[in-house]
Amino acid sequence: MPTTQRSYARYVALGDSFTEGMCDDLLPDGNYRGWADRVAAALAEEREGDEGRAGAGEREGDGFRYANLAVRGKLIGQIHDEQLATAVGMGADLVTLAGGLNDVLRPGCDIDRVERLLGHCAAELRATGATVVLFTSTDPTRRMAGSTRILPAILRMKAFVQELGQQDGFAVVDLFSAPCFDDRRLWAEDRLHLSPEGHRRVAAGVLEALGRPVDFDWRAPLPAAAPPGRAERLRADARWLRTHLGPWIGRRLTGRSSGDGRPPKRAELLPYR
């Protein structure tokens, strides 16, 4: 169920490339910005305003802290085994948890196991007293040919997440039902990760789920644009096959992941500013 608005001082993000921020704007340190960083920036600004209004004598002096444990390519079992205990130990009052889609994309996905591990992560994080934000996946069938095979698993995960979201202390950002994500302009060239505009809209969805006002309708479709011509589409498809799909298939065949050997994006709960 939607949470009542509360102030947050410590935010931890768990997940895969979606939460790492893949294909958003690059930061000076070489990391992608991503929707979680955008949420952290908004909450840090809010926290600074709250502390300023409270007066110097009432300030906690800790400011707003943020950690992002996400690593691209991670499966839900890896998120459970490599990120959950660290997140629980950080004592956050806000957690975002997204995972399982990388599992669903693979043939032979054990959806029962995905739900069990995602549910355990959610329960453990909520047991700390944190508000836990979950996500439904977007609907890939409305923009990607050949994705209908995974729709039953995505719909099952959607129902599972929405059921969790009915419990106290949980909030759900429903990306599946947002028509804007049918538009390829919200997606990067690889067609799997969000563009900067996509990350901006997810951040707005999270803030809205937390009871914060947003200054635009993040679900609304983008303004109409002329569709690309046939030649342009063919060139884009050929580039995608060569640059993105081919390497992705190669990693699956060899058991490798794009996140192998990568550290978490922001491994410590540090002051955001």
From TrEMBL:
SUPFAM superfamilies from the UniProt entry: SGNH hydrolase (SSF52266)
Domain SGNH hydrolase-type esterase stretches: 13-201
Give a yes or no for keyword Hydrolase in this entry: yes
* Biased composition regions of type Basic and acidic residues, renumbered to the chain: 262-273
Top-rank taxon of the source lineage equals Bacteria
EC number, UniProt record: 3.1.-.-
Per its UniProt record, what Gene3D superfamilies does this chain match?
A: SGNH hydrolase
Annotated region Disordered: where?
Answer: 252-273
Q: Which InterPro entries match?
A: GDSL_Rv0518-like (IPR053140), SGNH_hydro (IPR013830), SGNH_hydro_sf (IPR036514)
| Protein name stated in the entry | SGNH/GDSL hydrolase family protein
Q: Where does this protein come from, organism-wise?
A: Streptomyces sp. Y1
The organism's taxonomic lineage, starting at the top: Bacteria, Bacillati, Actinomycetota, Actinomycetes, Kitasatosporales
